[in-house]
Amino acid sequence: MSSAADESARTLGEGTAGDRDPLIRQAEQAAAARAQAEQRVHAARASDVRYVIGGLFLLYGAMLLVASAFTTAANLHKAQGVNINLWTGLAMFILGGLFVTWATLRPVSVDDVAEVPAGEGTYPESQQAEPAQPRHRR
Amino acid sequence: MPTTTVAGSLLKLHANPLDFTILAIYFCVVLGIGIAARTRIRSSLDFFLSGRSLPAWVTGLAFISANLGALEILGMAANGAQYGVATVHFYWIGAVPAMVFLGLIMMPFYYGAKVRSVPEYLRLRFNRPTHFVNALTFAVATVLIAGVNLYALALVVNALLGWPIWLAILISAVVVLVYIVLGGLNSAIYNEVLQFFVILAGLIPLTVIGLIKVGGWHGLVSRINAKMGPTALHAWQGTGIGDHNALGANWIAITLGLGFVLSFGYWTTNFAEVQRALSARNLSAARRTPLIGAYPKIFIPALTIIPGLVAVATVPHFGGASGSLQYNNAIPLLMGQLLPNGVLGVALTGLLAAFMAGMAANVSAFNTVVTYDLWQDYVARDRDDSYYLWLGRVFTVIGIVVAVGTAFMASAYSNIMNYIQLLFSIFNAPLFATFIIGMFWKRMTGWAGFAGIIAGTVGAYVTHMLYAGAAWIGLAHPVLHFGSAQDASFWGAVVAFVADGVFSVAVTLVTTPKPVEALDGLVWGRARREDPRAVLRGDKAWYRSPALLGAGALVLVAVLNVAYL
User: Fold this and answer.
1) What is the DSSP string of B175-222?
2) For the residues of A34-53, what is the DSSP string, one character each?
3) Would you call B342 an interface residue with chain A, using a CB distance cutoff of 8 Å?
4) Could you say which of A46, A84, A118 has the minimum Cβ distance to residue B343?
5) Interchain CB distance below 8 Å, A53 and B526
6) For chain B, first and last CA: distance in Å?
7) What pLDDT does B288 receive?
């Protein structure tokens, strides 16, 4: 099974130096993988669902808290004497705040994206954990 | 059901501008997610599987949310009102063990084999006819279920807000259409996660106020004891052979039919669910997807069964299969009676969001199977990836249009859940037998897979016809008798499983098996290992261990079953 790194090595090595120092080639591969990972990190940060949930719940929470200040006697009676807008609003506001805090304190990092695109990096169990084949070829 | 089309004044909510603003904000956010996701879609894999990039907590919540459609919520509250605490069987026996099995045992095959859909696994493991039959029946079933969601949504919106049916169908269909066509699975999943929290924000206050109204749990217990009898508050009492219970099913039907065949068939082979796990960013996250979903699943019955029981205890003349006071309306009725404006808007938004999520989950599974499994395999192969991306958007539109059309098929059935269960027992139940035998028995042949699925589907269908469809096939009386429609679908599933198993084994013995090398990554003993470079630093944390998460869920379920014996 050819892995993504082998692929990129082939592309990188093409034309310029088939006989280049393997150490340089390795470094180039690593740099390419890092750039790819950073691109994925950037994309993941831009669309972090935690901000969406957090933002919506902060907004809903605030709306309910404002509404709770104007609770009518009829509404209070309906909710069995509980100012439910206050408590729900408070809970939603706090949850929203937690999501935003989480996303801010622990943004998506390189640790969260794999070096190889997920799903591409599998091979039969019958092979060794470190595929020995490519090394023999070199 | 059709009777609710006449907007009952009992159900009509007194929603005010605040509630509508909350609803409108949600619609805007949903569309915004679709527009934002659009820019990141560069390949068909981005569109259909979210580029296999999502963290486990997102896919895990989406996994549970794809199932937590409004049909499920209203239907389970209805079951809670009708059958009492025994409804927990649909969660603790009928979901959690299968989810744990999917995460621990089956996911390495799905994710490790790099398949893009459940039917694709069948193509690799068995043969093209098996694949074709499964892809086709799945596409038909999902579109039917999307239609059921849409119709139910329209009925509820009509009853709660007084909007005409066609308007409700149009608005929600267009919203779902826009965000899936733009953002694909990614926006479907983000909306599912969002919907999960909004529906909880609506159901928790409803449950709390409901409990206050009946005088707490003890007040509820004494009222339910008076109205429904003491077994209504127990999960397993009255389920002995020959005993009587509200569910109409004995413990064999519950554990074998619901807990084993129906549940495993649904959770482990339904692509609308498995697709969420396939979009996870690596094997570890894929395995944790159903396991993380299992924990909310354990506690959600508190938010559906309790409102159902509160409705029984407090709403005069509540019950029955039709009219404003039917079981299915437990939650909408309580919303109108207990929630003031504001929280009412949140609950309403949660309900509509859940309907749309239920529909979107099916549409996003439908477009994937039709594009990858039907079109790419049987109509136009080896085209440019952008062609399939475009096709996915076209099939999204077609799927939604067909769903709108099929919505009206649901109107013939009074209890929506029974209808859904019936569909699953016919299409899903036999599948699990094929998967389980095929995964653990290398010798099982391609044609055995085909024969098994056909035999199982026919078995479930015949069981249904001999029970409920006697008049259709010209019989004066049903040949088979069951305790209830639920009981019938449990046993229909068992019949499907047995028929599938028998034919799978029999046909295997007279046909030639595939060479073992062709089954790499697909069968037990030849699983693929993950490339170490796909493993993330955080995956090794003890609390992310799939075995621990799975065992924890099972222990919790066992303890709860004993507590509510």
Assistant:
1) HHHHHHHHHHHHHHHHHHHHHHHHHHHHHHHHHHHHHHHTTHHHHHHH
2) HHHHHHHHHHHHHT-HHHHH
3) yes
4) A84
5) no
6) 33
7) 93
Reported ipTM: 0.86
Most confident of A15-24, A74-83, B251-260, B482-491: A74-83
**Which residue has 């080896």 as its token pair?**
B382
pLDDT tens column, B367-413: 999 999 999 989 988 888 889 999 999 999 999 998 888 776 666 55
Q: Cβ contacts of residue A36 below 8 Å, gap of 6+? A: none
Q: What is the mean pLDDT of chain B?
A: 84
Write b or e for each residue in B58-71: b if 16 or more Cβ atoms lie within 10 A of its Cβ, otherwise e.
bbbbbbbbbbbbbb
CB pairs under 8 A between A and B: 162
Phi, psi of B214 (to 5 degrees): -90, 5
Of the ranges B36-45, B181-190, B479-488, B502-511, which one carries the lowest mean pLDDT score? Answer: B479-488
Q: Which residue has the higher pLDDT, B459 or B477?
A: B459
Query: How are beta strands B528-530 and A122-124 bridged, if at all?
Result: antiparallel
Please give the radius of gyration of chain A, using alpha carbons only, rounded to the nearest integer. Answer: 27
Looking up tokens 């950037």 gives: A42
Give the closest of B18, B190, B208 to A67, CB-based: B18
* B137 pLDDT more than 70: yes
Mutate to test the interface with A, among B57, B191, B212, B529 (most CBs of A within 10 A): B529
Among chain A residues, the shortest Cα distance to B282 is held by A118
Pick from B338, B533, B539 the residue to mutate for testing the A interface (most A CBs within 10 Å).
B533
- Which residues are CB-neighbours of B215 under 8 A, at least 6 positions away? none
Beta carbons of B36 and B352 less than 8 angstroms apart: no
Q: Do residues B237 and B326 touch, judged by C-beta distance below 8 A?
A: no
List of chain A residues whose C-beta atoms are within 8 Å of the C-beta of residue B198: 56
Query: Which residue in B16, B53, B275, B519 has the most chain A C-beta atoms within 10 A of its own C-beta, making it the best mutation to test that interface?
Result: B53
